[in-house]
Amino acid sequence: xxxxxxxxxxxxxxxxxxxxxxxxxxxxxxxxxxxxxxxxxxxxxxxxxxxxxxxxxxxxxx
Length: 62
Fold this sequence. Notes:
Blueprint: H1 2-21, H2 24-61
Helix pairs in contact: 1-2
């Protein structure tokens, strides 16, 4: 989950910098980076849950 947090943090920083300087392009890039971070976080959670489910199934089969 480190990558998703980094992506969201980078997005927040870019968005804030864009807002403070009036740079709409940078602000939009920041929002996009935040969205990518959120999507990555969701993907990581699904991947983690699938791994746990697989492990649980292996334990039950033993």
